[in-house]
Amino acid sequence: MKSKRSVLLASALLTLSLASTAALAINNGNGVNNDRHDAKHTGHHQYKSKRGMKGDFKRMAKYLALTEEQREQAKAINKTAKTSHSVLKESMQGFHQQRKALLMEEHFNEQAFIDLQSQYQDIIAQKALIKAKKEHSFMMILTDVQKEKMQSHQKHDGRRKHHAE
């Protein structure tokens, strides 16, 4: 009798776990209450809205205790980088379209991808240079204490583990 109950209980648990897994898969893993979840985390999953990025800057500025002058300098640095970046963004649209076409082909053509990558390598390098200059300029407006705080935060931030080394 006890073994029958345990078998029934185990099968019921298995059925419930499979059903909940299927429900989550159908629901794209967002859980049951999507309205509250989406309202709470709007703009924080795949793409951040402009409002979300401004929030990131505000949180970072508050965390580092930036002065008003430092905030203005950081905004100017970001504006300059954004202007430079937008010029290159137009050039990169062709790269993204061609890359997408290569990835959609039935058989992956390694050489075509390598050729495409090398064709746009200068632009990719320029984008990386703009980003590095922006980060360097920002670090130069920080005090030593703020720099240490920023570096320790990056080491502990799960999204930035690759920068910690």
Description of the molecule:
With 165 residues, the chain is an all-alpha fold. It has a domain of 41 residues. It is built from seven helices and no strands. The radius of gyration is 24 Å and the shape is flat. About 8% of the residues have low confidence.
Explain briefly what this protein structure is.
With 165 residues, the chain is mainly alpha-helical. It has helices at residues 2-26, 34-40, 50-64, 68-104, 110-119, 121-141, 144-156.
What are the defining features of this structure?
mainly alpha, 165 residues, flat
Number of helices: 7
Low-confidence stretches: 29-41
Helix share of residues? over 70%
The overall pLDDT, averaged over residues, is 76
SS-based class: mainly alpha
Oligomeric composition of the shown chains? single chain
What Rg, in angstroms, do the CA atoms define? 24 Å
Structural shape? flat
How many DSSP-defined strands? 0
- Topology order in helix (H) and strand (E) letters: HHHHHHH
Fraction in beta strands? under 5%
How would you sum up the major sheet?
none
Q: Give the N-to-C terminal Cα separation.
A: 60 Å
